[in-house]
Design a protein that fits this description.
By secondary structure, this protein is an alpha/beta fold. The protein has two domains: about 260 residues, Carbamate kinase (3-Layer(aba) Sandwich); about 90 residues, Archaeosine Trna-guanine Transglycosylase, Chain: A, domain 4 (Roll), CATH 2.30.130. It is built from 14 helices and 15 strands. The chain has an eight-stranded mixed sheet, sandwiched between helices. It has a five-stranded mixed sheet with strand order 12-11-13-14-15, with helices on both faces. A two-stranded antiparallel sheet has the order 6-7. Helix 7 packs parallel to helix 9. The longest helix is centred in the N-terminal third of the chain and has 25 residues. The protein is globular, with a radius of gyration of 23 Å. The two termini are about 35 Å apart. About 40% of the residues are buried. Bound molecules: glutamic acid. Glutamic acid binds next to helix 3 and strand 4.
Length: about 375
């Protein structure tokens, strides 16, 4: 399949994949999955796992109790199952010498910019240290209004958040057909979707598989979030884990939704469009040159003056000493902290503040310079 070679991939496992259609986690299948993911991680691909299956694992642990089907019972079951689910991933990855870390998110975490950035930074730090993030919705707390509801959407948002190169949604279907192949003999398989149109959405219908929450329609929703941000998305069967690696080598599996060549959802647009700067940072000409011409992060050593009062993670305007706005970005230090460490090298931050929050004032990933405004 003709795709850019991915460096960071988000792989979402539906409940039906982890249970193989049964009513409990299928360990023999999960071993194969983990073997494949560990092989990819060893070959230099950064792997993020989004795992469903907390409800299924919880029901298994509790001995399939007959409970009224309501939200509070589902949440209760998930608290038991999430633990078991994560432990299973942890034990299996440890066979191959990899550590995993658990991240549980709700919609509220992704809508709040500060929590969103914190989650992003944590996941990125894990990837740098070859710790495999295992992510699920925080089902115990995700009540209507704050919940994402399905892991297809969650995995797409995570892929956008960490700027992944590829999103793989593994399910019990081979991919997208023109109509339901179980009911329509004339259904044709779709290999590539260059653009998600209403016609494509209609093909997904409202299908929901076995124990999972999603279906083909949530996969299309997920694909539209990811592809709008330039991320290729593949919906494929999770029956043969070795196919994940084969896909990355160019093999044809499932349906590829092509990432847009002109992503409209830029994270930096959020910085510029959605927030009024809380203050200004004035930088010397060396720092101005570095951020404008070399796309560098802004270091406190290049800051000459701080105006206004702001906390960490707020949007600030970055200005030249003449006051010209060079760009806007999210600061990693508060105005008080910056006033103390400006003009200093990062080696000295600890001595001055008694702690440090990294060497940069505004990271390049969080800095939209004038050309981008
Ligand atoms: N968070 C749910 C679970 O782990 C799964 C949601 C979904 O299937 O999309 O049970």
């Amino acid at each position: 399949m003709n795709m850019k070679t991915p460096k960071t991939i988000v792989v979402k496992f539906g409940t039906s994949v982890l249970t193989q259609g049964g009513n409990r986690l299928c360990l023999s299948h999960m071993v194969e999955i983990v073997r494949e993911l560990a092989r990819l991680e060893s070959s230099g691909v950064q792997v993020v796992v989004v795992s469903s299956g907390a409800q299924a694992a919880g029901r298994e642990t509790l001995g399939y109790p007959k409970l009224p089907k309501n939200l509070i019972n589902r949440q209760m079951v998930a608290t038991v199952g999430q633990n078991r689910l994560f432990n299973t991933w942890q034990n299996l990855f440890s066979i191959y010498g990899f550590n995993v870390g658990q991240i549980l998110l709700t919609g509220a975490d992704l809508e709040d910019r500060v929590r969103y950035l914190n989650a992003r930074d944590t996941i990125k730090a894990m990837l740098e240290h070859k710790i495999i993030p295992v992510i699920n919705e925080n089902d115990a707390l995700a009540t209507p209004g704050i919940k994402i509801g399905d892991n297809d959407n969650l995995s797409a948002r995570v892929a956008v958040m960490i700027e992944a190169d590829l999103l793989v949604l593994l399910t019990d279907q081979k991919g997208l057909y023109t109509s339901n192949p179980e009911k329509d003999k004339g259904a044709r398989f779709i290999y590539v979707v260059p653009e998600i149109t209403d016609e494509i959405r209609a093909m997904a219908g409202g299908s929901v598989s076995g124990l999972g929450t999603g279906g083909m329609s949530t996969k299309i929703e997920a694909a539209s979030i990811a592809t709008m941000s330039g991320i290729d998305t593949v919906v494929m069967s999770g029956a043969e884990p070795a196919n994940i690696g084969d896909l990355l080598k160019g093999g044809s599996h499932g349906t590829l939704f092509r990432g847009s060549e002109n992503p409209v959802l830029s994270r930096k647009m959020w910085i510029v469009a959605c927030k009024v700067p809380s203050g200004s940072i004035f930088v010397d000409s060396g720092a101005a040159k570095a951020i404008l011409e070399r796309g560098s992060s802004l270091l406190p050593s290049g800051i000459k003056k701080v105006e206004g009062e702001f906390g960490r993670r707020e949007v600030v305007s970055v200005r030249s000493l003449e006051g010209k706005e060079l760009g806007r970005g999210i600061t990693r230090y508060s105005s008080k902290e910056l006033s103390l460490i400006m003009g200093h090298h990062s080696d000295e931050f600890e001595k001055i503040l008694g702690y440090e929050c990294g060497s940069v004032a505004v990271h390049r990933d969080d800095l939209a310079v004038s050309e981008g405004i």
